[in-house]
Amino acid sequence: MKISSRVLARKYAQAFFNVYGSVLTPEHYTALQQAAYWFKNHTLFLFFLKLAHITPEHKQNALMHLCTDIFAMPVQFTKLITLLVDHKRSFLIKKVIQALIELYQKAHNIEKFTIESSHPLRPEQCEAIVQFLTEQSGKIVHYTTRVNPELIAGIRAESDEHLWERSIRQKLRALYDISVQERLL
């Protein structure tokens, strides 16, 4: 039976988190996010990790340098890298890091939102939206903002678990849904 790479990466992350989750700090969480972003934008690096003619020592050294020297991940992370290289699964590093981020967020009651608006938001507007989202979700809100002119004078906040939107686009969609239902009756 083949197991998907995402499930396998999640198992490595869960095992690491079970043993070393208590030593992860907010700074390590930030480092994990930076590493995830880096791996997302450097997919060729992950391709090279799959090549058999690159020695395990080179793969391990490259990952150690990236994770501990550049991204300042905890020393314990070297054990995870060694394990991945020994199991010939170093190419899973991006997915393992993403799974660790999710585990950290769950353990620390953090929810990541993308806040879209039809126009750039001022800092005080962002603070008000974050306060609202915190009250509604009961979680610590981390967010990124993005301008989306398709909203037509509105705001949309979306996470993996929640969606909140107030915009002209939402009202038009609701009117369209009503008109479609009336035609069906």
Automatic annotation (TrEMBL):
It is a peripheral membrane protein. Signal peptide: none annotated. InterPro entries: ATP_synth_OSCP/delta_N_sf, ATPase_OSCP/dsu. GO terms for molecular function: proton-transporting ATP synthase activity, rotational mechanism. Keywords: ATP synthesis, Cell membrane, CF(1), Hydrogen ion transport, Ion transport, Membrane, Transport. The keyword Membrane applies. The keyword Cell membrane applies. Pfam families: OSCP. It is found in: Cell membrane; Membrane. GO terms for cellular component: plasma membrane; proton-transporting ATP synthase complex. Belongs to the ATPase delta chain family. F(1)F(0) ATP synthase produces ATP from ADP in the presence of a proton or sodium gradient. F-type ATPases consist of two structural domains, F(1) containing the extramembraneous catalytic core and F(0) containing the membrane proton channel, linked together by a central stalk and a peripheral stalk. During catalysis, ATP synthesis in the catalytic domain of F(1) is coupled via a rotary mechanism of the central stalk subunits to proton translocation. This is ATP synthase subunit delta. It comes from candidate division TM6 bacterium JCVI TM6SC1. The lineage of its organism: Bacteria, Candidatus Babelota, Vermiphilus.
